[in-house]
Amino acid sequence: MRRRSFSMALSRLDSLYMAVVADHSKSPHHHGVLPNVEQLQLNNPTCGDVINLSVKFDGDMIEDIAFAGDGCTISTASSSMMTDAVIGKTKEEALELAEIFSLMIQGNHKVDEDKLGEAKLLAGVSKFPQRIKCATLSWNALKMAIERSEL
């Protein structure tokens, strides 16, 4: 009986995680385009995901961030979660989060996933290698935006 209740609890937890991912996909946070900010476009030819990322920097801080484009559920949810995680952070902090996310999504769970906020809920994507590019697209765009801002 104890094993069954543990299994049911895990099933409920998975359902909760999936509900959060679905919510971020259906109603993404920071979705849109920031005016007067350079747009960075990145795509995932494997899945067809396209992201347009705009980041407004105030010196070393990410003052505002937004994304637009077409993406699958995982790509859109990851983009939404990424924007929540990095807004108000320094460039260095955001790059650290991108590295943690990248390691986590590749199956390295020895990283401090809690720093990612809700984005840690995407850790299970590591079990589906074909979806890793979907989950990392926005994070890679963020890294590129930060690199370009320092040129």
Would you give an account of this structure?
- It comes from Streptococcus thermophilus (strain ATCC BAA-250 / LMG 18311).
- Residues 17-134 form the NIF system FeS cluster assembly NifU N-terminal domain.
- Pfam families: NifU_N (PF01592).
- InterPro entries: NIF_FeS_clus_asmbl_NifU_N.
- The protein has 151 residues and is an alpha+beta fold.
- It has one domain (2-149): Alpha-Beta Complex (Sufe protein. Chain: A), CATH 3.90.1010.
- It is 48% helix and 17% strand.
- The chain contains four helices and three strands; from the N terminus they run αβββααα.
- It has helices at residues 2-26, 73-86, 91-105, 132-149; strands at 39-44, 49-58, 61-70.
- Strands 1-2-3 form a three-stranded antiparallel beta sheet.
- Strand 1 and strand 2 (49-58) form a beta hairpin.
- Helix 2 runs parallel beside helix 4 and helix 3 (91-105) runs antiparallel to helix 4 (132-149).
- It starts with a helix and ends with a helix.
- The model is unreliable at 1-10 (pLDDT under 50).
What order do the strands of the largest sheet run in, or round the barrel if closed?
1-2-3
Mean pLDDT: 88
Spans where pLDDT lies below 50 across 5 or more residues: 1-10
- Tell me the CATH topology: Sufe protein. Chain: A
In whole angstroms, the N-to-C terminal distance is: 61 Å
Please report which band the strand proportion falls in: under 5%, 5-15%, 15-25%, 25-35%, 35-45% or over 45%: 15-25%
- The helix content is 40-55%
Q: What's the main sheet like? A: 3 strands, antiparallel
Rg calculated over all Cα atoms: 16 Å
Can you write the helix and strand succession as a string? HEEEHHH
What is the CATH class? Alpha Beta
CATH architecture: Alpha-Beta Complex
- Name the shape in a single word: globular
Secondary structure tally, helices: 4
Number of individual domains: 1
Number of DSSP-assigned strands: 3
Query: From the helix content, strand content and strand pairing, which structural class follows?
Result: alpha+beta
